[in-house]
Amino acid sequence: MTAPRILVVDDEADLRELLEITLVKMGLDVDSADCLAAARSRLAQHEYGLVLTDMRLPDGLGIELVREVSAQYRNTPIAVITAYGSTDNAVSALKAGAFDYLSKPVALDQLRLMVQSALRIRKADSPAGATAAPAPASASPLVGQSAVMQDLRAQIIRLARSMAPVAITGESGSGKELAARDIHAHSARADKPFIAVNCGAIPEALMEAEFFGYRKGAFTGANDDREGFFQAANGGTLMLDEVADLPLPMQVKLLRAIQERRVRKVGATSEEAVDVRLVSATHQNLAECVEQGKFRQDLYYRLNVIELRLPPLRERLDDIALLSDAILARLSGAGTPTVLSPTALEALRGYSFPGNVRELENVLERAMAFANDGVIEVADLALKRGASMPPDRVQIPPRPPAAAPAPASTQSSPSSSPSPSLLQAEAAGAVGDASGSASLVEQLDKVERQVIRRTLESVRFDQAQAAEKLGLSQRQLKYRMQRLSIPQSEQ
Ligand SMILES: Nc1ncnc2c1ncn2[C@@H]1O[C@H](COP(=O)(O)OP(=O)(O)OP(=O)(O)O)[C@@H](O)[C@H]1O
Asked: If you measure from the C-alpha of residue 141 to the centroid of ligand 1, how many angstroms do you get, rounded to a whole number?
């Protein structure tokens, strides 16, 4: 098998030589060019596994080559070498289609990591040299045939090929984490870890240690060396979820880690190179956070190189049937899937879904418990028009690891809750109180509201403890509190 061929474009002979020697030592074939014209003629003669170009060349700018290679040699990744601290150049090159960038002075360990990940892209493309075909909808976990979803899937495939940081925006429950996982799955990093971090869920005092790791003895309780999120995601993708919740001091440290591509464990004297693709997500308006001084502009600029917007479900109501089928099939497991009656489907199509796909999942999960003969009717859906709080006011805690589907509403088995007597007492009270006009769904909501409220009060509104007592994940508890308009704290 022939070694991959790399094209180095630089007019500085010393740097060119250093790059050539390093690449040859990696077992690669190297060609070089000292200007744009020479690079163009090389490109016309050979197929390259990677082009590495300086930004300033005697006959033009490296970014021109980035545009040409991205347009004409779509399977050839191109990376740029920028002057130290030149954020603008790096970001514009990434936006123009560069796969990645390196800052001067070029650190050889980073060069090696970058070349390896560029060559993985080539390997991932098959057959060799063919343009990556758009994945069929069935290959994506993002269900939906609406034009926006088709466009979203196509964008994901395109941007999965580069290292450019992606900022995913969208309302809570619209699928931001799912999209981030899909970017990773379509990238050449797919066989390396995907680590999602909820930035709002980490206590500020622990953040540096959680992100960058720590050395044994760095602080009381640091009994062993530990890796942080960056090391854990090395070679793969790190998703910074709810990135707007990062405190300002941590934003400074994160920016440095992104710029330098190095991290230092708490208590360590030296830094280590990390190769991590960053994806960030937030349901907040990050540009507004910058204006309000809550988010650093330089970090915003670094993270927002490519934007990916997840549409709210109400903008793609045509997808509801497909989504519902997929969710019901998953919830039904191996059994015959529960289905929606035509009127129930119409009712869902007329609902605004403030909690987006997550809300649809919860509505269907609950409705399945009420459905007769495997058919969900409108009444089983218990849709509350205008009753939900806007989701952007709700802070969603981290996803529990592979949580089992939640038991539907308070019909959870009493054994999953340590307070069965409370459940029974509440249920008895609610039924006793029920006016003849209240529907079953309203009565059950009332019981659920009372049980959750009492449990929250018993643990002083500590949601983690309340969720545990109720046998729910924190996310499920949040959703139920939102749906039942239960305040977050004692009022
Ligand atoms: N297009 C989709 N197809 C199938 N399932 C989806 C889709 N979008 C979202 N989901 C499902 O909806 C739920 C919420 O998705 P996800 O956690 O990705 O949303 P999010 O935008 O990251 O939410 P949050 O901002 O609250 O963290 C998940 O169970 C996910 O699998």
From this structure: 10
